[in-house]
Amino acid sequence: MTSDENELINLKEFLEKKIGLVREDYFKKNKNVQEMIKSDLDLTDEAFSRLEEMCNPQYLNSDEFQKEKMEIDDLDAEHVSFVDFLKINYARPNRRNQPIEIKFLKNLSRLNELDPEPEDQISTPDIILSVQISQPLNTKLRKVAWSEDFYLLGQNYLTELKDKITCHRNEIKIGEFSEDPNQVVSAPLMKGVIKSGYFFIEETLYNDMRNENNDCSENVKKWAIENKIGVLESKKMEETKFIDLTIKIGFPYLYNHLGNCEHLIIFTGVKLVNPSSDCYIRSKYPILKDKSRGRFTFCWCCNKIYAKWIVCNSKYAVDDPTFLCERCLRNTHYVENENNQENEEGSLRKAFDFKAFHYSQI
């Protein structure tokens, strides 16, 4: 479903309204889907067999169409250049570079073939929401890069989506490691220390209050009052399902975690669960539909390896801070310790005063 971005949609009312428009057995997972389709479309066995062959998921792979390419033996010489053009442009694709949409549809087809446990099966009428998550917002770039697309059930809690969202800042190790870079292995992760976060949807702050997390939205509510924006409501994320929300399709909302790491979240569509085509296994949701390759920063010294360190106050760096890989950091900022005869791991010392912080990339 698409809608005007100014139109608020109460998802619970949307579900109740749509239920009245479908037949009673619509939400039942019918084992014999073939019979159901033949009955709905009034097809003969022969017509259904042809339809089943044409809609086979294997045709999502363009390799199957290679078998149906025209033979070139009977073509005239004047058509040879055209045939060469076809061979170049329709050659067998590299499976690793297969579009993510094709991979998703194939995986969804496999999920639909599974027989879920009764308690893990969607037993009540529900909706599916499609949602996009942006990469961390960067005020200097002044543009938005999208990171992930998910399918959600109305019965999913907001915390289930929060736990599925990936952000490279979650994987940053806390500490300053210039004295011994090897200590980064045992250092705590950012997401393990700062567990709080919130969604800001339609003037309501949904806070993650699990594990005795602090309400990090208090400053936002105080700021809204001081700037005469209004009084913002607060609710617990772990007690709120998506079906309880009132949203606008295509409108940007906010996800904040780690104190000041912000992502845009946009609901791009809502529909009823279709037993014949959607995944019917409750535990598989939220389902990752698409994921971007991400933005990667190369080492500013060798420009060949991904950066792993942010180095500050370095006398060798043109910019401060600078991004370095493991090898360049050790080769340019450390010297062999005179107390050790062999250049073993841990036998290096700082060549001069600087600071090094861990930098994670996904």
TrEMBL record:
<dbReference type="InterPro" id="IPR022042">
    <property type="entry name" value="snRNA-activating_su3"/>
</dbReference>
<dbReference type="GO" id="GO:0003681">
    <property type="term" value="F:bent DNA binding"/>
</dbReference>
<dbReference type="GO" id="GO:0001046">
    <property type="term" value="F:core promoter sequence-specific DNA binding"/>
</dbReference>
<comment type="subunit">
    <text>Part of the SNAPc complex composed of 5 subunits: SNAPC1, SNAPC2, SNAPC3, SNAPC4 and SNAPC5. SNAPC3 interacts with SNAPC1.</text>
</comment>
<protein>
    <recommendedName>
        <fullName>snRNA-activating protein complex subunit 3</fullName>
    </recommendedName>
</protein>
<keyword id="KW-0804">Transcription</keyword>
<dbReference type="Pfam" id="PF12251">
    <property type="entry name" value="SNAPC3"/>
</dbReference>
<dbReference type="GO" id="GO:0001006">
    <property type="term" value="F:RNA polymerase III type 3 promoter sequence-specific DNA binding"/>
</dbReference>
<dbReference type="GO" id="GO:0000978">
    <property type="term" value="F:RNA polymerase II cis-regulatory region sequence-specific DNA binding"/>
</dbReference>
<keyword id="KW-0539">Nucleus</keyword>
<dbReference type="GO" id="GO:0042796">
    <property type="term" value="P:snRNA transcription by RNA polymerase III"/>
</dbReference>
<comment type="similarity">
    <text>Belongs to the SNAPC3/SRD2 family.</text>
</comment>
<keyword id="KW-0238">DNA-binding</keyword>
<dbReference type="GO" id="GO:0019185">
    <property type="term" value="C:snRNA-activating protein complex"/>
</dbReference>
<dbReference type="GO" id="GO:0005634">
    <property type="term" value="C:nucleus"/>
</dbReference>
<dbReference type="GO" id="GO:0042795">
    <property type="term" value="P:snRNA transcription by RNA polymerase II"/>
</dbReference>
<keyword id="KW-0805">Transcription regulation</keyword>
<comment type="function">
    <text>Part of the SNAPc complex required for the transcription of both RNA polymerase II and III small-nuclear RNA genes. Binds to the proximal sequence element (PSE), a non-TATA-box basal promoter element common to these 2 types of genes. Recruits TBP and BRF2 to the U6 snRNA TATA box.</text>
</comment>
